[in-house]
Amino acid sequence: MSHPKTAIVRVKGSCSPEGNFQYSLNWGCKDHPNNYKAEISGFHDIEMVELHAARTAIKMAKKQKYTKIRILTEPTIVWDFIKNSANFANAPLQVRSMVQAIHAHRQFIIIKVKLIDGKENIEN
């Protein structure tokens, strides 16, 4: 029988001085193969970029057969959307599909979310 695998992932959305949005996934150590950073278009605020990053991390963890993921995020709104994803129908239209996708993954992986400040480090 395989042991349960838990991922702890710090998600971060940001905007460059030129106005380009990007996100990063930190899986707890500098050289983790799932660490990821990318530019992204089609978003107009950092919170929604960070919600996209959380959804991406959840999809990666599910695909890699993790049984549980803990998302670490700074924005309260991102924490709320993930924590209350069962209420996706009440989410604003521009994020409803992302929140619904996060909720749909709950049938395959346990999703927890923790609100952190920007100085908090993570360790797996």
Automatic annotation (TrEMBL):
Any GO molecular function: nucleic acid binding
The organism's place on the tree of life at top rank: Eukaryota
Species name: Caenorhabditis nigoni
InterPro entries: RNaseH-like_sf, RNaseH_sf
Name listed for the protein in its UniProt record: RNase H type-1 domain-containing protein
